[in-house]
Design a protein that fits this description.
Number of helices: 8
CATH class: Alpha Beta
Distance between the termini: 39 Å
CATH architecture: Alpha-Beta Barrel
Bound molecules: zinc ion
Order of helices and strands: EEEHEHHEHEHEEHEHEH
CATH topology: TIM Barrel
Shape: globular
């Protein structure tokens, strides 16, 4: 079985791993939040995860939290998000958009170099994939994956999130055929609504208290999120929450070359929906 992360962590039994970063091992921050464990996700068959939309989610214990960030990489805010995560030695999962990864691949590489998990979130973030033809929607998914692979120099995790969480049965089934997990979330932060950092902090913590655990959905394209994150991570530590870092159990499948097409100008115009 593959090792989940560097640094000697081995998962002998799936979903039960040795703690990764003890808080007292975080350079310059002995009271860091850290990562309490790494959870390997079996993506075979394309599991659908997150109780906001599905009947199941990750196998988390009470007070366990998985942090996720959509829509990046962003030229300003992704770095600030990374800095806040680094400060607490926390690992998260990112769902970047293909066109942005192509424009600023060096920012996405920073995400991967810090050990965060990188999934995908389509090529140009059409808000309703279901309104496209199936072939176009499939191409959005595959081109997004290919763009992230090009930016990183290796395949992304087989983790996918639908733009706007707008899924369709047919596309979920398609993702299932390529063993790609579909991530919804358990806790929305509303950071896409243009709310301020204090509201993000308050709503996120209130929802976490109510649900007790879960996948939390942020955007690394929002200044309010970047501002809220340091305090939010401190509040998680003080509230006794523990961070779980998710990784795929198996190496991702290669992108089928048949569905990757040449880049066109019209593809770039679609990106207006991404931010
Ligand atoms: Zn999005």
């Amino acid at each position: 079985m593959r090792l989940a992360v560097a640094g000697g962590l081995a998962c002998a039994i799936s979903l039960v791993c040795v703690p990764d970063v003890a808080a007292n091992e975080c350079p310059g921050n002995p009271d860091a939040l850290g990562v309490s464990r790494v959870l390997e996700v079996d993506t075979s068959g394309g599991p659908r995860l997150g109780r906001l939309q599905y009947g199941q989610t990750l196998d988390l214990e009470p007070k366990e939290v998985v942090l996720t960030f959509d829509d990046g990489p962003h030229p300003r805010y992704t770095r600030r998000i990374l800095k806040a995560l680094d400060r607490e030695c926390v690992k998260a999962t990112f769902f970047p958009v293909g066109v942005w990864a192509r424009q600023i691949p060096h920012v996405l590489r920073l995400v991967a170099e810090r050990g965060h998990t990188v999934g995908t979130h389509t090529w140009s973030h059409p808000l309703h994939l279901g309104r496209l033809s199936f072939a176009s929607a499939q191409q959005q998914i595959e081109k997004g994956i290919a763009a992230i692979e090009t930016a990183l120099g290796r395949p992304p995790a087989p983790f996918f999130r639908f733009p706007g969480l707008n899924h369709t049965r047919k596309l979920k089934d398609y993702l299932g055929t390529r063993d790609t997990a579909v991530f919804s979330c358990d806790i929305a932060t509303d950071d896409w609504r243009g709310i301020g950092p204090r509201t993000i902090l308050r709503r996120t913590l209130a929802r976490l208290r109510r649900k007790g655990r879960g996948i939390v959905l942020f955007h690394d394209t929002k200044s309010s999120t970047a501002k809220a994150l340091p305090k939010l991570l401190r509040a998680l530590k003080q509230g006794g929450y523990r961070i779980v870092h998710i990784v795929p159990r198996e190496a991702p499948a290669p992108v089928p070359s048949a569905v990757i097409v040449a880049q066109t100008d019209s593809d770039d115009r679609e990106q207006t929906q991404a931010r």
